[in-house]
Amino acid sequence: MKLVLVLALALLGAVSARQLHEGAPEQEVPAEQGEEEPGEPEPPCPTETESFRMIVPGQEGHTCRYVIVNNCQPFWKAQRLCARCYRGRLASIHNYATNHRLSCTARTRTNRGQVWLGGITSRRRRCLRSHWIDHSSWNYSNWARGNPSHARRTCVALCTAGGKWRSVNCRARLPFICQY
Question: Which domains are assigned to the chain?
Answer without folding.
Answer: 49-179 (3.10.100.10)
